[in-house]
Amino acid sequence: TKRGTNTFSGSAYTYFKNEDLRGNKLDGEDLGEREREQRNIWGMTFGGPIIKDKLFFFVNAEYEHSPYPVYKWHHSANGKGDGTSLVSRVTDEDMSRFANDLNRMYGWNPGSWTDYDGQDNVYRLLARIDYNISDRHHLMLRYNFTDKKKNYAASGGGLVGAPASVYAQTYSGSMYSRKDNVHSLTAELNSSLGRNMNNVLRAGFTFNNANNRESDANFPTIEIQKADEGGVNRPFLLAGYDQHAYKNGVEERAWNIEDNFTMLLGKHFLTLGTSFESVNTYNSYLRYGAGYYR
Hints:
Elements: E1 9-18, E2 25-26, E3 29-30, E4 38-51, E5 55-69, E6 74-76, E7 87-91, H1 92-106, E8 117-132, E9 137-152, E10 169-170, E11 176-192, E12 197-215, E13 221-227, E14 233-239, E15 249-265, E16 268-284, E17 292-293
Parallel strand pairs: 6-7, 10-14, 13-17
Antiparallel strand pairs: 1-4, 2-3, 4-5, 5-8, 8-9, 9-11, 11-12, 12-15, 13-14, 15-16
């Protein structure tokens, strides 16, 4: 990990990647049209002295953005599905009629059925302080933060099949977001206790608020089924809150402390250490928590 020095310095950087920067041939064979892909990262670093030769700081901030289509299935013009071309048997008229009914009867808009664009956004921060207490003792404090939010396709609730397939279609309002939020604080004291002896005392705390799912759909899950050519009932239209997203999440708090004493004995190192860790985890999951109607 980088750290501050006696000189103020900083940098700015960016990374870009899309499908045109990825190879598309294998053993001379063209693999066809590339799937759309994009990833952008912007970041900066800055560090320097707070007290020269004594106290230093360093900061690194970063933002990552990746847009992508959540669904690739399209509605059909004639009510016939084609799995090879990712065409569902659901027509534009079916989607429009169901959306209009929900709007007319309940005043709720289920979202688009032609635009399923999603995104993956990540914010990262690292901040570090280094303190030269003396020639023999050095203290480091480091804080890490990560915040991530990514869009996902609706899980669906049908007994057979998915909410977007050759048999079924859903609306953009049924997509859900997964949020991950992590805070971490670490302290380390490195001490030279003599010519051949060294001790490292380290303590850390991590707060992990992970896999928290949320949906913009303020409406229960509504599923309409329709028999396929073989007479099997399959999901046909789906709207509303994703059935697995309601109050779904994990909260974890962990802290640890360890101490390692190392002594050089001729050509050998002798290390004595101890460590303790405590982890508390909470999980919530309420399937059909927003209501489910079929």
